[in-house]
């Protein structure tokens, strides 16, 4: 089972129609929730929220839900960040560099609550 492909849709929330001049700089952040589907299972539910802010402090949010083997969870988060930046009009090379350089850590993990995931506005 592949963790890379989201299931159940991708959800966007924007405070502006589009990123304002991304070449002037953007801030990137993320948070996620993860949980094994059963105690000894290698399969996890992974809920990812990626956040972009342009130089005018407009917020662009993307949420996706994934399920699959846990081994590549860090790379899946990087891929979602890159996908989100490309979707919002960030240059491909800039998006790749930012996604590659971001540190994905367990410090960004929140307590798993799928019902709360779509409505949380962290």
Tally the helices. Answer: 3
| Total individual domains | 1
Order of helices and strands: EEEEHHEH
SS strand fraction: 35-45%
Contiguous low-pLDDT stretches (5 residues minimum) are: none
Q: Which class do the helix and strand fractions yield?
A: alpha+beta
Overall 3D shape:
globular
Q: Strand order, main sheet: write it out.
A: 1-4-3-2-5
Q: Give a quick account of the main beta sheet: strands, pairing sense, barrel closure.
A: 5 strands, mixed
Map the helices and strands.
Elements: E1 6-14, E2 27-36, E3 43-53, E4 59-69, H1 73-87, H2 92-101, E5 109-110, H3 114-117
Parallel strand pairs: 2-5
Antiparallel strand pairs: 1-4, 2-3, 3-4
What does this structure look like?
- By secondary structure, this protein is of the alpha+beta class.
- The chain has one domain (about 5-110).
- The protein is about 25% helix and about 35% strand.
- It is built from 3 helices and 5 strands.
- The protein has a 5-stranded mixed beta sheet, with helices on one face.
- α1 (about 75-85) runs antiparallel to α2 (about 90-100).
């Amino acid at each position: 089972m592949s963790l890379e492909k989201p299931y159940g849709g991708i959800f966007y929330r924007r405070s502006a129609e589009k990123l304002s001049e991304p070449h002037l700089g953007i801030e990137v952040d993320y948070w996620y929730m993860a949980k094994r589907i059963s105690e000894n299972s290698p399969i996890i539910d992974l809920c990812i929220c990626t956040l972009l802010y342009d130089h005018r402090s407009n917020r662009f949010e993307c949420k996706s839900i994934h399920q699959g083997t846990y081994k590549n969870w860090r790379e899946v988060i990087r891929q979602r960040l890159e996908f989100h930046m490309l979707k919002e009009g960030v240059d491909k090379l800039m998006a790749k560099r930012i996604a590659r350089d971001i540190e994905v850590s367990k410090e960004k993990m929140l307590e798993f609550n799928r019902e709360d995931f779509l409505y949380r506005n962290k």
